[in-house]
Amino acid sequence: MQRRFLLWACFGVSALLTLVMTWTAARAQGASTPPAPQPPEAFAYAAPALIKELDSKYPFPPPAPPSPPRRGGVLHVPTGVLRSFDPTVGYSTELSLVWDTLLEWESTWYFPEAHTKPMIRKSLAESWHMVDPSTWVFQLRQGVKFHNLPPVHGREMTADDVRYSYELLKNKPGYSNRTAAIQEVQVLDPYTVRFHLAIPDPNFPLNHVNSFSPVIVPKEAVEAEGGLGKYPIGTGAFLLKEFATGEGALLVKNPHYFMRDKDGQSLPYVDAIRLFFTRDAATEAALFRSRRVDMMRPPTLDMLNELLKTVPDAWLYRIPSLGWTNYGLWLPFGKPPYNDVRVRQAISMALNRDIIAETINRGDASLYGPFPWVQAGYMQRDDYSYANLGPNYTYNPKRAKELLAEAGHPNGLEMTIEWGEFRGAAWSDFVVSAARFLEDIGIRVKLKQVDTSTWWAMRSGAQPFNDVLASFTPPGSGPSFMDWVYLPHHSSSPPTVNIPHIADAKLDALLDAWRAATGERQLAIQKQVWDYLREQVYRVTTIVPPHYRLTQAYLHAGGVPYCWFIGFCSYEGKSAWLTDKVPNRKFDKFAQ
Amino acid sequence: MWTYMLRRTLQGMLVLLLVSLVIFALVRSLPGDAILLQLDQAAALSKADLELARQELGIDRPFWQQYKTWMTGVLHGDLGKSLTSRKPVSQELGKRVALTFHLALMALLVALLIAIPIGIASAVWQDTVTDYIGRMFAILGLSFPDFWMATVAITFMAIWWHWMPPMGFEPVWIEPLKCVEQLCIPAVIIGARLSAVLMRMTRSALLEVLREDYIRTARAKGLRERAIIIKHGLKNACIPVVTLIGQQFSVLLGGAVIVEVIFLLPGVGSLTLDAVMLRDYTVVQGAVMFFATVMVGMNLLVDVSYAWFDPRIRYR
């Protein structure tokens, strides 16, 4: 009896569903043929309004916070997973909270000009001068002491430590790009070192400006059993108190830190920094909403919008990117058809960068050329336009088709784009958009997703890519023209630096001329290189979204284009401060 | 009984040996290696430097030599050193095992608390509203993936109450309340899904048992219904349920990876995930061997427990 009832019930529900669906379909069909033509609805795209609102509500550069800063408190920061906290094992940005470099970028809130132009802060080095472009002398700050812990016991840092550290880290992963040009480090006296370079470099000091360059480590700690992993001793603003693999790290203030703020007060202001290793953007957002962390970097405008709705008193630092995390295609220039400039130009012209910006980040992105605008002499935000990029970077599918035909590909060609997921980047959106535009000019694209590790190895030049690779900034891209342009484009650079194997005699000559020039002449050559690269399209670049940093209302921690990541140059950790509205936090220990 | 256990242990060891070979080969077949993946954003190492770095880690040697060295170490209780953190693998695993066991046990407890009563109710009141609701719950539980439930839970808790479980982990024997606070939400999410599977199994097993002759005899003898269901029915219906629990517990240990990642729990799952991403061969091998050992051990335990549930079962 019951089974029969069930059968009838099922039949009844199915019949009802069918009726509802038929009725809905009929209505939809009726609606699609209205009796009279209606005016089209306005394109309801919210992002431009939001971007405008962000521009006015969170101006760049941001206003300076009140003074004097409050001392104390524990700063909670989410960061990616670190497998070790040891500079000899590998580079990571957070290491510079414990270990200092010779120089660093200025980013403290009390120097607002640091937001618009790069300012070098003298860290372990007090002064430097060029003997000739291949020889540089650095004078070290006196009285800088290592952390007062065994086996170093707070001894003074000297020129011997600088030589030891450079020799130790020179060939280690993460540091090698900055040290590639160094042939020898000589100790002249306890506070003076001389660098002999294999390649003349008039901008050599820029290679010491952040933690991509070797940090200074004490020999005793490196050579003790367990090394720096067991004895994380440096000269930095913080001491590593606890490191729990996969969980986080606790760094406490170094009471004897040598650096002072503009009023001569000691740094850092906070008592401690607690790093939380996170792997997921949703988790980070939840941590921020529940005030478990004090800052975060929303990867997209959408997420930023959602966060601002739920944490309305948060402060946003919306910082134009110099070029980090730009979206582009890397082509193997040595191989046909990409060795033909017309094919490269066609590929670049096929891409509608406005649509790509909208697809990836709702239009909140700047156009990006062969290298950072600022290095070609464009300083204003208005400069970031098609006018300065030229026809090869302007959407023109008709001309692109013609170019392909002229290059001998009237029926198009086959292309495989390899790409990988990367936290905070929208590579899938980018490659799908790019493929769609390339199809329009007859390039039949096959998308091949590789795992993140493989993609990373490909973009590092450690593993070859098969056809075309979707990737951002070439590895080793630091703040200088040397790093951004010279090394990645010069034919003499190793394949792990000049990854697409660019070998262009004219470009080499221009770069060599730049290397030997100084002052205005050098800037003029930089512009010539810019123009040449725009013409040759050695890198098919598209757009670069800005960096977003959200901080809780009770935190003052500025970010500038030159030093954006926490710990990237160790700056913000030193000068961040918390108001008295910070939640009362217990000093919870880590699980391990 | 002892002969049976010895035989099963030897079989288990053979399985572990095969697992060790397979995982050793598999992780090395992945593209890239630990050195390449440490290059990060500033790579200018020459081929010679790369080779030197590989030599330091011993990953430049032939496959069989590497396997022999590793197996010799394993047999002496040494799982080797992590290629990325340079710490002993046993130390890295040891730190995480406690949390993973806590989470798996709590999730299992949650699952049993939900599944057994609903399963019994569904079977006893078969084809009634109670049964339909129970079955609907099971289908819902199976339909929602862990990672989705975890993301939704963590997002809405943060939006509505500005709260999320405290990060980190305190073992239950040190701070029981904090341990529950830290693990209750992830355990409920993992447990809810498992409970759906267990509930279905409990229901079907109990339905089968309740139609057996000895149940009819018990009813004919005038036993109370509760005694019939609990003492005679449920105990006998437990055999497939226990088998499933045994299998699922091992799955729980390794399957909580995503939930561990979302709730920032430093367990074996998240360690394994990081190790795979960084091609940290020794950690992956150690973690997989850990899971395989638990799986083999649990299966043996489940088989032995059958005799308690059903005295007719004899081991030969």
From TrEMBL, chain B:
It comes from Tectimicrobiota bacterium. GO terms for cellular component: plasma membrane. The keyword Signal does not apply. Pfam families: BPD_transp_1 (PF00528), BPD_transp_1_N (PF19300). Keywords: Cell membrane, Membrane, Transmembrane, Transmembrane helix, Transport. Gene3D superfamilies: MetI-like. CDD domains: TM_PBP2. This is ABC transporter permease. The chain crosses the membrane at residues 103-125, 137-163, 183-201, 249-268, 288-309.
